[in-house]
Design brief:
Elements (H helix, E strand, L loop, with lengths): L2 E4 L3 E7 L24 E7 L1 H11 L5 E3 L1 E2 L4 H9 L8 E2 L6 E7 L5 E6 L11 H8 L4 E5 L3 H13 L4 E4 L9 H8 L4 E5 H11 L3 H7 L2 E5 L5 E4 L6 E3 L13 H15 L3 H16 L11 H12 L1 H11 L1
Helix pairs in contact: 1-8, 5-6, 8-9, 9-10, 10-11
């Protein structure tokens, strides 16, 4: 099954300031702020929702096709993804812009000052999915994740016009989108992904009820944090899957992306929706135990041992056949 994953590709530059921002601010001079913080720690992490999802799928051996836009500075990141089983040949490289970047400084009180540079992400709207499909011999599913909003709309319309099944997964971009845009992005989706808060926001912005939205998509997949995930279909009982026990909670960033990576990999393997959701929850658990969205290691034996403990021998036997 050939799955294309569209969305943002970015790097995070995270710095730590050992003092307090509040101590550096003069109340009657805030209109002329000019400050420079000497930081004592810098972490550069790979990120972006599409890259995170594709990385996880690559770890599971399903060879996803990453579709997005990056800058000429993407070479090292591309090599990393290539080494981890991702097809990066459909990433558009900008001639003038850098890869999207989040730069953030955190002080000792955990206050943050950050900036997000969209950069080359704005060129994702220039990518045609037909070119991607022609290169790989057709697409069975396109996951349309948070990206340049115009790119998300264009990818959705192209999937409809070419009868390519698609998953709507607008996550971080839902805050800036209006009801009309959200209706366009989800109508006719084979899968609609969101967390529980986003689910309510989708209903509020579109003016559609839960039942109306469900009637317009094939499957509604709602992540429930520590409670796992719920999958709904018209006329069917919901499928609910819990999460494995955590060994520790290190960093929640990227957990949703990891779930999607596992779920989409399960679809690629052809296992049931319940099994796919279980794989997604297991992968998400590995990510929450690790600092960074692509820093976890998927050791097959360890993965299957924990998967078996969480979901039983029968489920593990089905998954093991594909994971091996």
């Amino acid at each position: 099954m050939r799955i294309a994953v569209t969305g943002s590709i970015a790097t995070d530059h995270l710095m730590t300031f050992p003092g307090r921002f509040a101590d550096q601010l003069v109340a009657d001079q805030l209109h002329t702020v000019s400050l420079s913080f000497l930081v004592d720690k810098l972490d550069v992490r790979r990120g972006g929702v599409a890259a995170n999802i594709a990385f996880g799928m690559g770890q599971l051996g399903t060879r996803p096709i990453l579709v997005g836009a990056a800058g000429a500075d993407f070479d090292e990141y591309r090599a990393w993804l290539d080494r981890h089983g991702v097809d990066t040949d459909s990433v558009r490289i900008s001639d003038t812009l850098h890869t999207a970047r989040f730069v953030c400084t955190t002080d000792s009180d955990h206050n943050q000052i950050g900036s997000f540079y969209t950069g080359a992400m704005s060129e994702a709207r220039l990518i045609e999915l037909k070119t991607v499909a022609d290169r790989v011999g057709g697409l069975d599913l396109v996951s349309i994740g948070a990206d340049d909003p115009e790119a998300m709309l264009r990818h959705t319309e192209e999937c409809r016009s070419r009868s390519i099944p698609f998953a709507a997964d607008f996550s971080q971009q839902i805050a800036r989108m209006n009801g009309d845009e959200i209706r366009i992005l989800l109508d006719g989706a084979t899968y609609l992904f969101s967390n529980e808060y986003e689910k309510g926001l989708i209903e509020s912005k579109t003016g559609w009820t839960d039942a109306e939205i469900l009637s317009r998509v094939g499957h509604r997949v709602t992540t429930l944090g520590a409670q796992g995930v719920r999958i709904e279909r018209v006329g069917e009982e919901p499928i609910e899957v819990g999460t494995p026990d955590e060994e520790r909670k290190a960093d929640p960033t990227g957990v949703g992306d990891a779930f999607r990576a596992g779920f989409l990999s399960g679809l690629a393997w052809g296992v049931s929706l319940e099994r796919a959701a279980q794989v997604g929850c297991m992968l998400a658990t590995l990510v929450i135990e690790t600092v960074g969205t692509q820093e976890y290691q998927l050791r097959r034996g360890h993965f299957m041992e924990r998967f078996t403990k969480a979901y039983g021998d029968e489920a593990a036997a089905e998954v093991q056949a594909h994971l091996a």
